[in-house]
Amino acid sequence: MNVVHTGFVALSLGLFSVTSNASDNLPNIRLATTTSTYHSGLLNHLLPKFEKDTGYKVDVIAAGTGKSLKMGENGDVDLVMTHAPKAEASFVDQGFGVLPRQLMYNDFVIVGPSADPAKIQQADNVTSVLSKIAQLNAIFISRGDDSGTHKKEKGLWQQSNIEPNFGGYRSVGQGMGPTLNMASEMQGYTITDRGTWLAYTNKLDLSLLFQGDKGLFNPYQVILVNPERYPSINQKGAKIFSDWLVDHDKGQVLINSYRLNGKQLFVANAE
């Protein structure tokens, strides 16, 4: 599976395809998606089966949620798969997206050095976690890339009434994988979606230190780009893909069946 991680570069270089036995007679479907669906291996699990079922090929651009939604706003893709509810609502309200559908969820977790210098394992809630990190001036690695994870992180700091301007705070402008690698190298803390954490955990000198707070819930949606705004998009293929993803006998079953190291990464929750 060839993956382009930066949306705007992807469009200049040409889209890649995840192929199986798809027909060359059908126009490719262009999907912009958060990097977590790629890093976790979920797309590798879903797309070959979809293409076998329908004959469509899917061209995927793996980018942060912010970049994915921007590509949708520009009509550069046919649908998006993202995980930032407020940004998604704005995308639909402004007329760029239609037919938003709940797809699945997992959660965010806070990881860091096993020594846990900020003692966040003793915290009762995520506000206490962030307070302990800031008060200690501990190293915290932020994605800083306008992704869904970055949006969640910024919201948590805001809800905790903490300005993340302490000396240990590092904004790196990178995807989740590089951010985790940097946290491991610097022995710092970071927030990550559970799926990417499980995919990377064996490669990192980090431990899962905090989880389970209701504020760390991480829902995903699939949203079609509005064909009235961009008539040239592949509306039919995008709708077929969206329908397949939320079908309880197709995409939803496969989402629930996906395991990594014996652990379920996502929970399907389409209505």
Automatic annotation (TrEMBL):
Keywords tagged on the record: Signal
Classification via PANTHER family: EXTRACELLULAR TUNGSTATE BINDING PROTEIN
Lineage top rank: taxon: Bacteria
Organism lineage string: Bacteria, Pseudomonadati, Pseudomonadota, Gammaproteobacteria, Vibrionales
InterPro entries for the chain: ABC-Tungstate_binding, PBP_domain
Protein's name according to its UniProt entry: Substrate-binding domain-containing protein
Signal peptide: 1-22
Domain PBP: residue ranges: 30-247
